[in-house]
Amino acid sequence: MKSRIFTKLFGLFVFLLVLQTAAMEIVFSRMMRHSAGETIRLLGGEALWAGLLALIVALPVAAWIARRVSGRLHGVVAFAQRIAQGELSARLDVAASSQDELSTMETALNQTAARLNESFAEIESRRQELAAMLDAMQEAVVAITPEGLVRWSNAQMRRIAGTEIRAGRPLVHAVRDPELLACVRAALDERAMRSGRASTLAPGRVFEINTAPLPSGGALAVLHDVTRIEAAERARRDFIANVSHELRTPLTSIQGYVETLIEDPQPREETTREFLGIILKNATRMNRLTEDLLVLAGIESPYYQLALKPTQAAALIRDAIAPLSGIAADSGVSLESASAPDALVQADADAINQVFGNLIENALKYGKAGKRICLSAQILESEVEFSVRDFGPGIASEHLSRIFERFYRVDKARSRESGGTGLGLAIVKHIVMAHGGRVWAESELGRGAAFHFTLPRFMPAQESATEQTPAPWV
Description:
Mean pLDDT: 79
CATH topology of the largest domain: Heat Shock Protein 90
Number of strands: 12
Distance between the termini: 77 Å
Shape: elongated
CATH superfamily of the largest domain: Histidine kinase-like ATPase, C-terminal domain
CATH class of the largest domain: Alpha Beta
Number of helices: 14
Strand order of the largest sheet: 2-1-5-4-3
Order of helices and strands: HHHEEHHHEEEHHEHHEEHEEHHHEE
CATH architecture of the largest domain: 2-Layer Sandwich
Structural class: alpha+beta
Low-confidence stretches: 464-474
């Protein structure tokens, strides 16, 4: 670059000087032919020497100017190459005192590079913001090229598909769900929106799929996790079916006995008393079911409040045993306390008394064959664990994971015979969870069953908090 510019400038300068010298020589030669004076000859010689001297002086000056211009142009070329390579922070050195055309061009190029840098920085910032928003979405999002390759995926999609999904990899190699692949293929081939449901992307999870073609080619797939929605809908249907079943059984019994009494014009007194006793028993069962449903609905409400106060663990067990010891004695069962520390727990005493009542009542129904029910408590690191243990026939292991579900019964016939509603343990679970605790059951057939729950220990820093804010939905 330097040599080409220098050669051109130098050649032009030499050509002009030679042309000037030749013109002067021709002029003076003509003058010499028409003039005989010695003065003219001397002037011509001096003019020739003057031209040669000017040429000698002009050569280094031209070389210096050409080199300087060439260097600045070379800097412009290097600057352009750095910009082309993405180095938008590159700048040209512009002399403050220089006011020529090259300086104007260098200043304009610097301004252009600065604007490009700002534009790209803004684009990158927006891209990062968009990526952060997409990563924060609960929905899984993946963009696919027209060739079926993964163009981009958000964090939720990567959590679902794992390391198999990454940019440039075929979607079919990362995702095996046929419904998702069919929706994506339809969006790519037909350029139309498609919907579907995927149930094999992740174990136990169901996703609603929506795919749409992208204007620039390819497709976008959005996956919404509807596992909880479907579980809630299934629970709602099961709940309605269970309530209907639980109410229909006593209602049918009441209706049958009332119709029998009405149809018999002169029923015997013993028969009447027997039938009325059965009607009362079923009406009481319906009343208990209604009360338990109202209690459970109240506990699950977002407006449910607990009056939390520091209470001794031993006091909670004493308050639970006192009102039920007589009922236990009438059933031939000994209700006792094994060990109870004086540690303070953060609890609503009335709600925990209801928890103990349901657990003891459950033990009296199904574990009274062991003739003993034992209540105990032990201190953990930040909790106190309470236990209600019976020594009856126990519970099979396959029932332990579901025993706290609404209307779930280990022995359905025996439970209905004893008047149980199937909601007692569900109420226990939700009250304990509202306290921030845990609940579980342990059992071994022939060796009884133990129900455990924990409550958070009271810490001095909690002394100012006398009431809990509305408990979240549990």
